[in-house]
Amino acid sequence: MTINWLAFLTVFVSSIVAACVVVALFATAIRLLATPPHGARPAGAARDEEMDDVEGPQRPRRATAAAVVLFVVAALVALYGIYLIIPVLHP
User: Could you give the count of Cα atoms lying within 13 Å of 75 in the half-sphere of its Cβ?
Assistant: First the structure.
């Protein structure tokens, strides 16, 4: 019994790339959720939570929609990886 090193290398590289893709998608989605509203002041000194303006401008809708799409794509990539790992799921 010998080890197929090319197959091992292929699985190793594809798993590293897939993990990086999922992390990049998730991190980009989180960054989009942290997008400040249009015309917002830059962050200044620390402030109390009671001073927060809850009724004020909100983050752009495009950023929110893009973040949701990226979260869904990251979840689909992760689920596809699980599908490939579990042989019972594909006949």
Answer: 7
Q: Is 25 exposed, middle or buried (0-12, 13-18, 19+ CB in 10 A)?
A: buried
Q: Give the pLDDT confidence of 31-90 residue by residue, as tens digits.
A: 999 888 877 666 665 655 665 555 666 888 999 999 999 999 999 999 998 998 899 988
Overall number of domains in the chain: 1
Give the domain extent around 27.
Answer: 15-36+58-91
Residue 74's nearest CA partner among 28, 15, 16, 33 is 28
4 lies in some domain? no
